[in-house]
Specification:
With 188 residues, this protein is an all-alpha fold. The protein is built from six helices and no strands. The relative contact order is 0.13. The mean pLDDT is 88.
């Protein structure tokens, strides 16, 4: 192995170790619902606008919320892929996907398996990639982390019948964890 490769691995490990403590602190605070007051003040209008009550859910409500979010995401992405030929940001005029390919793609991105049997650059419009695949990549990761939060709460809160609020968990994970970790892109 080349020396530059070893340096790169060592640098990666150092960055990982340096980020573990602050990221772990943020995750623990999110799991326990301990967020800074200014973040909660930013979230409150979101909850009102979306009609979300910030009360805790039992496991059935939590499961229903997670399944309904994923099902709506599946329907949205499936419809987007079927209709991409008639929707804007499609300068290459890509046609709609066949229903079976659209369904396969939608299911794979909603379940975070991201299995593709096509070349995205020559098959999918900009809108399908931005509003469809990218959004589902983020939401599927947020859903998985939210379910992990619920599992952690189950073990930590023995004798309590609530798991938190799925809508709050997914929103907080998306806004305060996943989006800040996305590196900025540069237009070249």
């Amino acid at each position: 192995m080349a020396a530059s490769s070893l340096y790169l691995i060592a640098l990666f490990m150092l960055v990982l170790m340096a980020a573990a403590q602050p990221l772990g602190t943020v995750l623990a605070a999110m799991t326990e619902g301990r967020l800074p007051r200014w973040l909660i003040q930013l979230e409150t209008p979101l909850w009102r606008l979306a009609g979300i009550r910030p009360q805790e859910m039992n496991w059935r409500q939590y499961l229903g919320a997670v399944i309904s979010l994923n099902f709506l995401g599946l329907l949205f992405l499936f419809a987007l892929l079927l209709g991409q030929g008639h929707l804007p940001p499609n300068p290459q005029h890509f046609p709609r996907l066949p229903w079976d390919l659209a369904l396969n793609t939608a299911v794979s991105f909603v379940t975070n398996t991201d299995w593709q049997v096509y070349a995205g650059e020559s098959t999918l419009s900009y809108l399908s990639q931005m509003a469809g695949l990218t959004v589902q990549n983020c939401l599927s990761a947020a859903t998985g982390i939210a379910v992990a939060f619920a599992l952690i709460r189950t073990f930590a809160r023995q004798g309590v019948s609530t798991l938190g609020n799925a809508w709050q968990d997914v929103t907080r994970i998306t806004l305060w964890l996943l989006l800040p970790l996305v590196p900025p892109t540069t237009a070249g």
